UniProtKB/TrEMBL annotation:
<feature type="domain" description="GHMP kinase C-terminal">
    <location>
        <begin position="215"/>
        <end position="286"/>
    </location>
</feature>
<protein>
    <recommendedName>
        <fullName>4-diphosphocytidyl-2-C-methyl-D-erythritol kinase</fullName>
        <ecNumber>2.7.1.148</ecNumber>
    </recommendedName>
</protein>
<feature type="domain" description="GHMP kinase N-terminal">
    <location>
        <begin position="76"/>
        <end position="153"/>
    </location>
</feature>
<dbReference type="InterPro" id="IPR014721">
    <property type="entry name" value="Ribsml_uS5_D2-typ_fold_subgr"/>
</dbReference>
<dbReference type="InterPro" id="IPR036554">
    <property type="entry name" value="GHMP_kinase_C_sf"/>
</dbReference>
<keyword id="KW-0067">ATP-binding</keyword>
<dbReference type="InterPro" id="IPR006204">
    <property type="entry name" value="GHMP_kinase_N_dom"/>
</dbReference>
<dbReference type="InterPro" id="IPR004424">
    <property type="entry name" value="IspE"/>
</dbReference>
<feature type="active site">
    <location>
        <position position="12"/>
    </location>
</feature>
<dbReference type="GO" id="GO:0016114">
    <property type="term" value="P:terpenoid biosynthetic process"/>
</dbReference>
<dbReference type="InterPro" id="IPR020568">
    <property type="entry name" value="Ribosomal_Su5_D2-typ_SF"/>
</dbReference>
<dbReference type="GO" id="GO:0005524">
    <property type="term" value="F:ATP binding"/>
</dbReference>
<keyword id="KW-0414">Isoprene biosynthesis</keyword>
<dbReference type="InterPro" id="IPR013750">
    <property type="entry name" value="GHMP_kinase_C_dom"/>
</dbReference>
<feature type="active site">
    <location>
        <position position="146"/>
    </location>
</feature>
<comment type="function">
    <text>Catalyzes the phosphorylation of the position 2 hydroxy group of 4-diphosphocytidyl-2C-methyl-D-erythritol.</text>
</comment>
<feature type="binding site">
    <location>
        <begin position="104"/>
        <end position="114"/>
    </location>
    <ligand>
        <name>ATP</name>
    </ligand>
</feature>
Amino acid sequence: MTRSVTVRAPGKVNLQLSVGPVQEDGYHPLATVFQAVDLYETVTATVRKDEQITVDVAAARGAAVDIGAVPLDGSNIAVRAAQALRDAFGVTDGIAVEIVKGVPVAGGMAGGSADAAAALLACAEAWDLGVGRSQLDEIAAELGADVPFILHGHTAVGLGRGDQITPAMTRGQFHWVIATQPHGLSTAEVYGEYDRMIESGERSAVVPEISEDIMVALRAGDAELLGDVLVNDLQPAALSLAPHLRSVMEQALEAEALGAMVSGSGPTVAALARSRQHALAIAAHLTVSGTADAVVTASGPAPGAVVVG
Ligand SMILES: C[C@@](CO)(OP(=O)(O)O)[C@H](O)COP(=O)(O)OP(=O)(O)OC[C@H]1O[C@@H](n2ccc(N)nc2=O)[C@H](O)[C@@H]1O
Ligand SMILES: Nc1ncnc2c1ncn2[C@@H]1O[C@H](COP(=O)(O)OP(=O)(O)O)[C@@H](O)[C@H]1O
């Protein structure tokens, strides 16, 4: 019988994204707090008896994701994940990877990283490699800075490139409104714009440190406090490249969102609500405002990559 394994992995928002000056390796030191939210990528890995790694992509039902922007060749990060695992464990079989996307593409919510994390776990199970989570973590960090967090999910502090993960204590659920745009932003270009703003003196870089206010708000499950202390150092760079995002945040605040920010490198905007009902009200207001391509609600923390079938 052909072995087939399905894994689900979440998207994320960064509650804090503090960015230091670029290092010699081209990466930026981060102090970030990730929260996984219940928008999911679903990845099925089916063993092939030839040596090929193939990939197929579809949108999840009702999800506003631009699957046309996802590569179907060896540059797909799920294919890179399968290849990395095969290299590390000397696997000879191939694999067919099917991705069903529920996270915006190039939206600053780590959809590709979720595909990589899910593909790692699904392929490891399908090939029956008996791999431990710490081995997966190592390969995950080589694939992308966000991938180790997505494997673990929930809420976590990320240091280094964002790939050194420590779980954070939280209470209850936080309710989010996620507003997407028709076109994505390149993460590398947003970091590049951040560098330009530092060099030109428009902004100054700080030594990134985790915000105690955010930790207190999370431990208390206090959404009002959290809304006041959300911080994203990439936001000015994302706004410089996509100035219309400012009006999305303004509309969310007009609907009494507790806080609104660009998610990671953008252009998705995440707004924090008091409750699920309030999230639906903000979503309705944002939809009517016409400032976003699509608006959905989500809640976090959500679990990391997990086998579902
Ligand atoms: C900004 C963040 C915030 O969580 O995610 P997104 O919002 O894009 O999802 C991350 O730092 C993105 O993580 P990820 O998308 O996995 O990054 P990678 O694939 O490793 O790197 C893509 C590019 O981003 C830049 N990069 C990434 C991480 C980092 N600490 N410093 C960087 O300068 C580098 O230019 C790199 O070439
Ligand atoms: N499986 C994948 N899903 C989405 N994008 C992918 C994938 N593999 C490679 N990519 C490329 O990575 C880019 C960033 O993808 P994504 O992870 O969705 O965004 P972000 O880094 O903003 O969270 C895309 O524009 C696309 O070119």
